[in-house]
Structure formats: C-alpha cells, structure tokens
Write a structure and sequence with these properties.
By secondary structure, the protein is α+β, with helices and mostly antiparallel strands. The chain folds into three domains: 8-55 and 139-223, Probable tRNA modification gtpase trme, domain 1 (Gyrase A, domain 2, 2-Layer Sandwich), CATH 3.30.1360; 57-136, Alpha-Beta Plaits; 290-392, Elongation Factor Tu (Ef-tu), domain 3, CATH 2.40.30.110. It has nine helices and 19 strands. The longest helix is centred in the middle third of the chain and has 12 residues, at 204-215. The relative contact order is 0.14.
Length: 396
C-alpha cells in the first residue's frame, strides 16, 4: 500500500482531479486539475513545482566513498568536484543497466545518490573491502523539483544565502528557505531551466509554503506526473520501466539494455581501473552496439492523410503514451517505440524508440505503427537527434 509524502497535506488539498498513482511506494499526483495542459504550459512558460520525494536517496560517506561509487558506477565518480552533480547509471557484471540517477559530491568524502529503485541492498553487497558507510535516507529527506524559465527568479526571492542565482548547470549548493536548511541542485527531469530542493522531511510544509508564496507572482503552478511525462519526452530522457527495464527484473536477456543502447554512452568511462561491467562495456564500445535509442518525429501530413482515409480527423492521446509499438523499415520490424507524446511547444508528434543500430542514424526514414479503427497501418517517422526541446536557458 502506498503512503503519503511529507507534502501530502498540501498536494491533496490542491488535487481537485483526484487523479493519483503509486510512485515507489508513495502517493503521487497525476494532474492537479482535470487536464494536465495548464501544468505543462506553466513549466515551459513560467514555473512548475513537483513533489519528487519518492526518488530513492542514499548517503555514501567514508575514506573510500569515491572509490566505491566509481566501482559500482559506469561513470568515474572520482572526477566529480565538491558541489558537482553527475548523471549516470550502474550496471551488472555483464554491462547491463540496473538503474540510472545522479551522484552529488557534497564533501570530499561524502556523496548523495538518487535513483528510481531501492538500491541499498545492492550497494551494500558490493561494499565489501571498501571503508564506506551507506545510508538509505529516502524517508528522512523530502524533495521538490522547481522547473521552468521563472524558477531561478523564484529561488532568488525565497532563498537566504547560497547564491542560487549563480548556481551552474549540474551544480549544488546549500541555502535556507524560511529558516529551513535546504540543499539545492540545478537538476531536473523536464529538460528546462530547473532546480531540485532537498530538505528534512519534518520541515517539508514550511518550505512548500514559502516556495508557493514566492512563486505566485511568477504564475507558478503545482505540477503532476502527467505534465512531467510530456516534458521528459521532449527532453529525450529515458524512463526505467518504460524505455528500458532494470536487468535485475528482466526474465530474458533480450529485455536487458546496456548504456550504449540507451544513448547513455557519454556517461560511461571505460579507460580506468576495474568497475562493474567494465570488460563487457569495453568490448561493446569497440565492436559497436546492436541497438540505438533514438528520437522519432512523425510525419504529420501522412498521419492526417491516414485518418482522412477513414473519414476521421487526426486523433492523438491527450497524455504521453507508454505502450510500445513496432517500428519498421521497408516492411521489416527494426525496433519499437516505447513512449511518445504530442509536443505542444514544438507542434510535433514525438516518440522515443529502440531500433537496430544500423537504423539509428539521424535523418533515417522509418515507419511507425498506428492503429486506426482497429486496423494496423504505418506512417513515416524520421530519426531525430534528442533532445527535441533544448532551450539555451537550461544551461545558461
């Protein structure tokens, strides 16, 4: 049974739609209103505030903390400087992805790891021989994502110290909000300018109220997971359980993925000492990957013509979709689109897909399966580099 986050007294009062889902054992809002579009547009035009407390959080400390995290991660965490955040993934011995998340170097020998899945037991299993302490602090730390072009201005208004306005992309600092100590990272899952706020769970409502008051003049809205899903498709971000599956849960090998097959090769540092999956990842990098993770832009004119042939106007899901559909090339299936959405800001029908490596080059013209009136058809879709939406303000 799922349980409420520390923000539940506020989020439940605002959720007039009564639309909730379970996220990592917690209640999570799908959309506050009947439709998620106002929340989406708030993120892209002003700011949105999302409860991300269900993210798993682990504090890793000790003399060998950096060496340990470098061993269990595909990324060489030792290269992170104090106050820097790194995104990456961790793999099993075969180089198959178990999870992805962030690592923040808070002090020289102290890190915080975030992930989608509970991972304490897995980290602990590989800690033998390292002088390291691993704490699961998920329930002790509440978290908010403040995302959108007005997020910096809101934080500058509400924070006391930390110079959050000057905080660089994927950097971290400490500040106070309404007297509460808060860690701020310039991170997020929307592909926009944004921050994540980490605070003691017992002070969650104090921080929520202060940020909400500061955000009101900036047209900030609370944001649910439906709007986030559209944003993350536009950003080209993979989602575990949808675009890939943790290797620990896969029943057969063909369900597993490597970082290179998920477009995460840039997070893999193979030119170093031993780490989990190193030999397999080195071999794959040398030989090339069997699969590629790509963006697809659907040919709108062709989609419109397809529906017109049935005497219907084009029909698209109002939400991001997560039901995998086949992708073809010249009538032969070459992969599957695992999620997608209509992009209101780009005015394009987008999809994320895994396709055979030889078909993963940008500009390649493939066909996406579409079902109209119970009949399966295809429409052209062009392989496109991600992120689809990549505003300068994200890093600026």
């Amino acid at each position: 049974m799922s349980r409420p986050t520390p923000f539940h007294p506020r989020t439940s009062a605002l959720c007039t739609s009564l639309r909730w889902k379970e996220w990592a054992g917690y209640h999570a809002v799908c959309s506050y209103g009947t439709l998620h579009e106002p929340e989406y547009h708030a993120v892209r035009q002003a700011a949105g505030l999302l409860d991300v407390t269900p993210l798993q959080k682990f504090d890793v400390s000790g003399p060998d903390a950096a060496e340990f995290l470098a061993y269990v991660s595909a990324r060489d965490v030792r290269k992170l400087k104090v106050g820097q955040v790194g995104y990456g993934c961790w793999c099993d011995e075969r180089g198959k992805v178990l999870d992805d998340g962030t690592v923040t170097r808070r002090e020289e020998q102290r890190f915080r790891v975030t992930s989608a899945d509970p991972s304490w037991a897995w980290f602990q299993r590989h800690a033998r021989g390292f002088d390291v302490v691993i704490e699961d602090v998920t329930e002790r730390i509440a978290a908010l994502a403040l995302q959108g072009p007005r997020s910096r201005a809101i934080l500058e208004d509400v924070c006391d110290g930390g110079d959050v306005g000057a905080l660089g992309f994927f950097r971290a600092t400490s500040t106070r909000i309404a007297g509460v100590p808060v860690d701020v990272t310039r991170t997020g899952y929307t592909g926009d300018l944004g921050y994540e706020l980490w605070m003691p769970a017992e002070d969650a409502l104090t921080v929520w109220d202060a940020v909400t008051e500061a955000g009101a003049p900036h047209a900030m809205l609370p944001m649910g997971l439906d709007a986030l899903d559209v944003c993350r498709v536009e950003a080209g971000f993979v989602l575990m359980g949808v675009d890939y599956f943790s290797a620990r849960r896969c029943l057969i090998d063909s369900q597993t993925s490597t970082p290179y097959e998920l477009g995460l090769g840039w997070t893999v540092h193979v030119k170093r000492g031993p780490f989990l999956g190193r030999d397999a990842l080195r071999a794959e990098k040398a030989a090339g990957s069997a699969w590629g993770f790509v963006g697809l832009v659907v040919d709108w004119d062709a989609l419109e013509a397809l529906y017109d042939s049935f005497g219907l106007p084009p029909q698209l899901p109002t939400h991001a979709w997560r039901d995998a559909v086949p992708v073809y090339h010249e009538g032969v299936q070459v992969g599957q689109a695992t999620s997608g959405a209509w992009s209101p800001i780009l005015k394009q029908d987008l999809a994320l897909a895994s396709v055979h490596g030889r078909h993963a080059q940008p500009g390649r013209r493939l066909e996406l399966e579409v079902t109209v009136e119970y009949r399966r058809r295809t429409v052209p879709a062009v392989v496109t580099a991600t992120p689809f939406f990549d505003p300068e303000r994200k890093r600026g």
